[in-house]
Design a protein that fits this description.
The chain is mainly β. It has 2 domains: 28-130, Roll (Mannose-Binding Protein A, Chain A), CATH 3.10.100; 132-249, Mannose-Binding Protein A, Chain A. 12% of the residues lie in helices and 32% in strands. The strands form 3 sheets. Strands 9, 10, 11, 12, 13, 14 and 15 form a 7-stranded mixed β-sheet that branches. Strands 1, 2, 3 and 8 form a 4-stranded antiparallel β-sheet that branches. Strand 6 (105-109) and strand 7 form a beta hairpin.
Length: 251
């Protein structure tokens, strides 16, 4: 008996057909910058125009080129360990050889998707990170942040709406924690609320954190992420004042 991995195909269909569909709460893009810069120059460029040099919470990435060439990403050696410039730890799916002291910045090959270390002064093109998460560094109660996110409007188009962020366990949680670490408060509100007898995301996303108390103590009916990450969402008093995470979407 042989087993075959399922294949993924894309089909064109008539737009009026009734089909299952998938929604996405927030998106992450990796703009490719076709300018030759050192690693530090690339980091500054991405920090000024985007969220920073590309940091991958997941090991699967696709690139556009059939030519294989190195591209700067946000992984570099900091002290005795590898760190992402945006704060993420090294992804254990990647394999890095032991570099010399002169090759402490990391590239990814455009087609083979392999990491390699290079001298940080080498001039190369690079990938930035751009996402639609918004960290608001204002201290508000959960009810206030709920109204704040929904009241935000894009300056470029009136079609963009905002809501409190929802999160899934795993890679998505790890990626969001990167943003939490930038907050001014030790915890950050997200869109999780205990209503009736269950925990619900305010945007209707599935609740996949199975370790949330089904009967939380009095007033601890709102969800927050802590910089001291425990891999889940914490139940907190909704009147506490914290920074918070919104996200934008086009309904």
């Amino acid at each position: 008996m042989s087993c075959h991995s399922p294949r993924t195909w894309i089909y064109s269909k008539h737009c009026e057909e009734n089909l299952f569909f998938a929604c996405q709460r927030y998106t992450t893009e990796y703009p490719f910058i076709m300018e030759m810069m050192t690693w530090s120059q690339a980091e500054e460029y991405c920090n000024n125009g985007y969220n920073g040099l590309a940091s991958f919470a997941m090991s699967q990435m696709s690139f556009f080129s059939k030519q294989n060439f190195p591209i700067w990403i946000g992984l570099h050696r900091n002290g005795g360990s590898w760190k992402w410039s945006l704060g993420l730890e090294e992804d254990k799916h990647w394999n890095l050889s032991n570099p010399s002291k002169d090759t402490t910045c990391v590239t990814i090959s455009s087609e083979e998707k392999e990491l390699a270390t290079k001298n940080c002064q080498t001039q190369l093109p690079f990938l930035c990170t751009k996402d639609n998460m918004v960290l608001v560094k204002e201290n508000k109660s959960w009810e206030e942040v709920f109204e704040h996110c929904r009241g935000l409007r894009s300056s470029s188009t009136s079609k963009i709406h905002f809501n409190l962020l929802s999160v899934k366990p795993g890679d998505e949680h790890t990626y969001v924690m990167n943003k939490v670490k930038e907050a001014d408060t030790e915890e950050v509100w997200v869109g999780l609320r205990f209503l009736g007898d269950e925990w619900l995301w305010v945007n209707g996303a599935d609740m996949l954190y199975t370790d949330m108390l089904q009967c939380p103590v009095s007033k601890k009916h709102c969800g927050a992420l802590s910089k001291n990450d425990v891999g889940t969402v914490e139940a907190r008093d909704c009147s506490e004042r914290k920074n918070f995470l919104c996200y934008s979407y086009n309904p």
